[in-house]
Each structure stands twice: as structure tokens, then as C-alpha cells.
User: What shape does this take?
Amino acid sequence: MNLKIKTDTLKTMVSKAAKASINNKMIPLTGLMNIELVNGKLNITTSDAVNFFTVSENDVAGENFSVVVLTDLFNKLVSKTTSENVTLTYENNVLTFTGNGTYTIDLPLNEEGLPITYPTPTIPFDNVKTGTIKLSTIKSILLANKPALAVIEAPYLTGYYCNVDNVISADSFNICINKVTTFPEPVLVSPIVFDLLSIADTEDINYEYTDTIIVFNTPKMRLVSKNMIGKEDYPVEAVTAYLGNEFPSHCTLPKTALINVLDRLSLFISDFDVNGVYLNFTNEGVKITSTKGNASELIPYQGSENFAPFTCLAAVDTLKKQVNARTGELVNIYYGVPEVLKLIDNNVVQVVALLDDNDTEE
Assistant: This one.
């Protein structure tokens, strides 16, 4: 049993599929890749033990077969191959890779010493709902929402809360509310899901979902994902309350200038300092100063409404991360509330928590 495929096509497929392989040594499945040819359709599947990701290609010449390989080895071999075509031959439980040369690939074995059979995810078909999500929507979520995802806090905060008319992400210092449409009812989506869907080559991505699972499909891609648990614990009301918060003043700053100033002032923050800067809203613009006062710059306003003097302490990394998530060249900052700043960019609202000024005292 064998197949022949153009090397560039195989490289694209394998590199995409490998993005779902996290290679956790404690969970063998996460380091495996299933290569399957069925009636001219080549499917390459990987998993992080929760999500199953398949990349497909039609009209591949060869005989039907299925074999499991180690993702890391196979990915590296394919990426280093320069021949025009690759032939895979699977006979007597031996996989041979023919490209620039001929390579016999060791296959992972089960307890009986036989090649592993790749698991197939169970998909319930009760109360299935269907819909379509746009690739452009996913890219908007990754740009705006991803920087506000929690990393080591409550597990449910590490996911995207997809509400009926917005997507929410939040951690201890940031909130992002992106007014885009994804699903017709609330769903808590694992962070890797949108990362994987972002490499789709079609604008429309169809999905089927139940209370526990979502299956995304395009002509050349399939993702089976379990819904994250903890949707009921997500602080939706507390987060969305910031949408209605009133801020007494508003200004507009140039994005590139703001990022550059924060980068330069970061050079004057030592490992023993609070990783923050003072933002002093003045008549002329925002004066940004290091906590020790040994570096400062003034950024003139591009626009200002209801100006009132205000000074706050903001975390440099947090602020930079949120400003970088803006799509345009202008940053609209709402200020005057002691606890937070609010940034608004068309349909995206970001809330950045401020630091306690007492933290700078020795």
C-alpha cells in the first residue's frame, strides 16, 4: 500500500496538522500523527487529547491505508525534504518514506508490539445545532481578545466566552469585549480552537455543535473540539458591566508613538522596580514617566474631550499588549476612573486595570 504526493503539498498539510500536536510526554496521543488515505482523500490528524484536528487533500494517488507516526520526527523529515514528490509505502507494518532518499520510519507500538490504531472521537448526534463562523471573525478575535486571555488563573478564564453578540476574554488585569457574532447561544471555547481555525483557506467555516462538542468543517479541514467546562462560572455580568461605565474624559493618541514610548521607558525599569509607568494626562498631552522619575516623554493628543487632569500607574506589559491589539493607528483612551482605563476601537472594548500607587513605595 502506498501513496505519492507533491512534497510542497505534504509540507503544507503536515505543518498545519502539527499545530494541534502539543507533544506532552505524559499523554502519548499528543505526540502522534495519523496518516490515512481513503479513496483518494488524504487525511492527516493530530490531537492535544481534547481536540482532534484533521487536514485533508483530495485526488491523491495511492491505495487505501492508515498508519500512525511520531509527529515531531515526521514533521521534521517532511520539512527537510527537497525532492519534488514523496512516496509513502506501508507494508508488513513498516512505513518507508521515499524523497531525497529512502527512510524506514519507526512506528509507535502498542502493548502487543503492533502499530497503534489512532482513536476516533465520539460525536453525539442529539440536539445538534448548525451554523457558520467567518474566518475574518476568528482573526478579529485572535487580534483583540487573545491578549486578554488568562494563563494561570481559573481554567474557564483561559477560554473565549462566546456570547450571542460578542466574544469576551478576561484575566486579572485585562478585559476585552469584541462585538462579533459566533454562535447563537453562549459557548466557552478552548483557546487553541481559534488558533487552528485561523489557518483555514475559506472564509466560511461551518459548524455543528451540542452542549458538549463542536465540529468545524471546511473542504480541507475538520476540527472536533470539546466545549470547555466552567461556562456557568464565567463572570459575564461583572465583565459586561464595564461597557456601561462612565469615564469623565477621553483622548486620542497615535498608536505607534505610544508603543515606542513604552518600549523606551521599559529600558529604565529594573528587575526590582514595579513594572509600571505613570500616565499624567495634561493639557498638552499624556506625559509618561518611569516610577523612579529617571525617564519621561510627552505624547501630544490627536484629540481630547472633557479634559481634566488625571494621573495613574499602569503596567507596561499589560498596556503594550492591549495597545498592540488595536487595528488602527489611533488609540482612544477613556480615563478619570481610579481603577481602570478603557480603550475603544470600533466594535472592540478593552479595559486595563491600573496598579496601586502604593506599590512603588519602598
